[in-house]
């Protein structure tokens, strides 16, 4: 009988048992998948961002200037970098769990791992995702200003697009941060 495939009780100290790392691998998979979608979206945004992009603004005083276009590109690059950072950290943690794993193929998602290392890595990955979302939100604000008119001009269309963006995304991020911190400390 192969005793390595049986679940073993939680070890004292800093180690997580085989029962708990399966949940962590699933969480890391979800984080990697979401970050991959965001990274792809930002990358596509970077590739199609062109100077002099079409605008729906009639008033020449409300057309976004080069500074907003530069901000857009900067925010897209920082967002892309943040999501990529988060995904790489999560992927590294996942690989660490698999490599530390036992020799049996059945236990590929269950391995003892240092809980402080895992928590710190998951916290880094989560904050990378948060920063990516913040900069993606700022990039979207600049896209809105380029397409619908600057906020300083008082474009009602820009305000209608930006207000929900700046209400929903920060609310979701606050909830996400609280959940991550709760999981980190408990």
Automatic annotation (TrEMBL):
The chain crosses the membrane at residues 37-57, 77-100, 120-141, 161-185. Keywords: Membrane, Transmembrane, Transmembrane helix. PANTHER family: MATERNAL EFFECT EMBRYO ARREST PROTEIN, OS07G0240400 PROTEIN. This is PGG domain-containing protein. It comes from Picea sitchensis.
